[in-house]
Write a structure and sequence with these properties.
Structural class: mainly alpha
Number of helices: 10
Order of helices and strands: HHEHHHHEHHHH
Distance between the termini: 65 Å
Shape: globular
Largest sheet: 2 strands, antiparallel
Length: 203
């Protein structure tokens, strides 16, 4: 069963995950337990998908901390993700998971059709630790309490996760460039705003 899941297309694996839900809600711990050998990439993908819905408040902030925690484990060199009870007990509604799977499937299939193993060194140790550090920063930026700030870093995490799953270093690079550009934009915007505020109050 695990081997079958390993060979299944990512969009199909998400659909199967939805079909396996047995109630109205599922925990992050349950989701992790279903992912087998592809746990890191698929878990990152599932956590990041809600973040790509513009002007969606609440849910992106709920998944951002687990996303950061799992990303940090890539930096530390863990091969399988782990969450403390306080995070693993967080829940998704089964209906929400189904909606995410249905809406994301067409886009995931397009990425799957485009991707293939290349620059694979970026998808495994030791270079994947640098990628993990980027994912931590992108995940942290999702916590910024401003309208629309979750979509771009969420998309960056999804592209990187797909690259890791497909062993496609080009996708990993694209996601890293997008996320890094976003972090740079936040820093510049923050510095500009701070300068304006100082001017207004005469500092």
């Amino acid at each position: 069963m695990a081997a079958l899941a390993q060979d299944m297309a990512i969009s199909d694996r998400l659909a199967q995950l939805v079909s396996d839900t047995g109630g109205k809600t599922v925990t992050l711990d349950w989701i992790m337990a279903q992912l087998h050998e592809r746990a890191f990439g698929l878990f990152l993908l599932i956590l990041a998908l809600p973040c790509c819905i513009p002007f969606l408040y609440g849910l992106p902030q709920i998944v951002a901390l687990p996303l950061m925690f799992v990303s940090a484990q890539i930096v530390l060199g863990r091969r399988t993700p782990w969450l403390p009870r306080s995070l693993s007990a967080r829940t998704f509604s089964a209906e929400g998971l189904s909606t995410l799977s249905r809406r994301s499937a067409p886009w995931l299939k397009r990425i799957e059709a485009f991707s293939r193993p290349r620059l694979t060194a970026l998808t495994k140790a030791p270079l994947d630790r640098i990628v993990g550090l980027g994912l931590v920063l992108f995940s942290a930026s999702i916590l910024v309490p401003l309208p629309g700030t979750n979509s771009v870093p969420g998309l960056a995490v999804i592209i990187v996760a797909m690259g890791l799953l497909q062993r496609d270093g080009i996708l990993v690079l694209l996601g890293m460039v997008l996320g890094t550009a976003w972090i740079g934009t936040l820093i510049v915007a923050g510095a500009t705003l701070a300068s304006l505020i100082k001017g207004w109050i005469g500092l």
